[in-house]
Write a structure and sequence with these properties.
The chain is of the alpha/beta class. The chain is 38% helix and 18% strand.
Amino acid sequence: MRRTLLTALLLAVATLATAAEDWNVLPPEMEVPPQRQLYEHLQRDALQHLAQRRDAFEQLQTPEQCQAWQAERRARFEAAIGEFPERCPLEPRVVGTLDGEGYRVEKIVLQSRPQHHITAALFLPPGDGPHPGVLVSCGHSRTAKAADYNQAMSIALARDGIAALCFDPIGQGERSQLIHPDGRPVQSGTTTEHFLIGAGSILVGRNTAHYRIYDGMRCLDYLAGREDIDAQKLGCTGCSGGGTMTSYLMALDDRIACAAPACYITTFERLIQTIGPQDAEQNIFGQLAFGMEQTDYLLIRAPKPTLVCATTDDFFDISGTWDTARQAKRFFGTLGAPECVDLVEAPGKHGLGPLGRRTMVQWMRRWLAGIDRPVVEAELKYWKEAELQCTPGGQVLLEPGQRSVYDLNADLAAALAEQRQARRQNGLPSGLQDEIRQRIAARPLGELPPRTARLVDSVPQDGYRVDRLALEADGQLPLACLRFVPETPSGTVAIVLDGDGKAAQAAASPDNPSVAQQLAREGTVVLAVDLSGLGETAVGKPSNVLSAEWKEFYLAYLMGRSLVGLRAEEVLAAARWAIGEHKPSAGKLMLVARGRAAVASLHAAALEPDMFAECRFEGGLESWHDVAGQPCGEHLADVVHGALETYDLPDLRTLLGQRLKP
């Protein structure tokens, strides 16, 4: 009796002690903290790709080798962005004019895609022309073309004889893609809109950059088509996010004779080592894997004149900027034009100030107008946002019949669904699992390194114990696990993947037990696993706008990979270990996945269904098709580039057949 009472007392004390237990397995004093492990694992692989690219660059010796380098990277860059549609009529309209000091402004509305319009301000020099023309791409400012720095570039160019067309990007100015009925943007942050657009775009094989680049090309169409603009003398510039767009456009559109990206160019090597991947459109699928650095935006267009504008204390690392400049000087020199590439570094933080702006204008005048002398900048006076407004209600989407990017993605998703249906007249196509594995960039089970378990400690519970253990393998991220071991095992084994982390399975109250607790009390051995980036390795808390692990997602994306694939491999590795260690009845596991772990677990089960006796999924996405045409940034970690060209999540459930349980 005393022993029974003592045992009960010890269990009660243990229960109280573990009520506040954090259930962590990985020690916080590790060389790489748990919250950084996923990023640094991906960073290591990314830097290997970049080292291979640098080694290849160092072998370039002749103009012919440089030209082959250009052709290969441009072709892969274009393929990664996605095919652009057939050009529709621009149907441009001048909806208003303004008279400035030494220039005038035309307010323009033009059609980029059918029923999808661009708002812009064209700053024109005095006289009939034809003038050189420069496309000014906006950075991430809510007011877009009306932001002071965008006006400053445009006015300075116009006063020095060069027309400047500054246009609103999607998600900014008059082109918010989500608006309230009164015209107010739903999202206050411009990068937020770009992320929300990006997630759905990725599913249909595009991304935010696809839409933004094409808008820039259509604006160049407009400039080139005006009688007062010299179509042979076109340039492009822009600061910050506008520097990104300038970099893309100058590499892809041969009409850009002169370019000056500002406050963006560094190297991916330094970007990844410092602030990490940035806004949605600044990441092109697989570009690190096919050997494309930021430097290559300059090299692809060589020997056309290119000026890099930078600031010393920019968050885009200046040492990477100079590294790019060094590589570009050598490359342009090999092509016989070292004078056609240059760099200006101004003191200060992120942003194009007077020195950078004057140098940019001088560069454009030198190469587009044949005038090479210092620029003297007069005082700049800016127009109010309302004065530059092109639409009556201040938002394009308030106009009748307008289509947002979400509408365009929904249209493409519907077309892809029809194509998939046509291929499934006699059921799912053979080889679908191999196609899925390729899409998510997951290795076959046999290629995954076997895991070994490192036991940390054991904690007694009522009717079972909880072992804290780590599943480890050389070169792989450690998997923090909790193993629930019943006092009397029944021979059944389950693996539980919880999007809120394994701790949610251990810390639930006895009155409302978790799945793992309930199964353990019924005699099932349960392995609850934190997938990388979740649970104790989470980088932060998700929001209803954006996945917490967005930097990790885009770092994988730059390498042509996915978090879905990485996590699916972890599910399978953990499941294989559980089967080998505990030898469940009939050799198969029960799989339970919920929330943010559900999509990756569904992939794992569909790729290796014979490992599982039954599968249950709770609270995850039901279909990618349903979110492709919607803002879905909170599901960013669960999307796969171009997946809807091949399959949707219901196809994975079909592959599971009777193993799938409600």
